[in-house]
Amino acid sequence: NSDPNGADLLFLSRSCYGGVVRFRQGDGAMSTPCGPHDPISPESFAERVDTWHFRTRGSTFVRKDYATALDDANSGDMIYCDPPYSYSQSILYGAQSFDLTRLFEMIRKAKTKGAYVALSIDGSKKSGNFLCDFRIPNGLFEREVMVNCGRSMLKRFQMDGRTLEQEIVHDRLLLTY
Description:
By secondary structure, this protein is an alpha+beta fold.
């Protein structure tokens, strides 16, 4: 990751297990294993790229700290928040200092300015036998959509070839609009 560029990121997203690429905060090295997965065909991938290009025409993508992005929001802006998952990623990516309550406060402020906010967060995933859940502030979000993410990537490593039919993960997508 010493010379970040789109072509390398695209290659890594096709090579890393589950298409997920992560880099360590300390040294920038890739921390996702390369491994067996069923990548999409080049033809299907090309179609997805073309569709994405068409749908995002005229959009501007900005990567910045969530508090700054939400504070800078104006009426009509769309902000997507993907914070560390509170149960499974609390020790990853510097998430120890992440404050979910502060995120909710910042989302409320952006919403009052007319910005649209989408938040993906823990859904039906389990940590051991514990079902991950927490309280969402009343009235902050207008809709909740459960997104089927398929089988748990982490469980694939842990189950060592055993069946995963009971390990379906749903993420919660919360929308202020």
